[in-house]
Amino acid sequence: MSNSTASKATAKMHFMLKSTPPRTTFHQDMTGEERDVMLKHIAYWTEKQNQGIALVFGPVLNPSAPHGLAIIEVENEAQVPKLVEEDPAVMAGIMITEFYPMKAVLPKQHA
Known about the structure:
This is YCII-related domain-containing protein. Belongs to the YciI family. This protein has about 110 residues and is an alpha+beta fold. It has a single domain (about 15-100), classed as Dimeric alpha+beta barrel (Alpha-Beta Plaits). The protein is about 40% helix and about 25% strand. It contains five helices and four strands. It has a four-stranded antiparallel β-sheet. A hairpin with a 6-residue loop joins strand 2 (about 55-60) and strand 3 (about 65-75). The radius of gyration is 16 Å and the shape is globular. It starts with a helix and ends in a 9-residue tail after the last strand.
């Protein structure tokens, strides 16, 4: 692997974020206030997707353990807690988000 290829491969880090709602029925019985916060949450992650940070995000419809999932790409690990803390759903205390480093396998970029 050439030095330029190696640096491209290690330039970005990937993390899996898992957001847990306050109850398993949350997507069915949100209050109006919770719904407003969740709309801000979606707008926040949509903006992060537009910036190239969130590669994919959305709800996981597991009936016994529903949660949100995001795969993000960042320059360094220090960015991740800030991204989580600034999520409107986390700020409002609706979601608890944990994150883990991920060895992502991405599609090859064609020149």
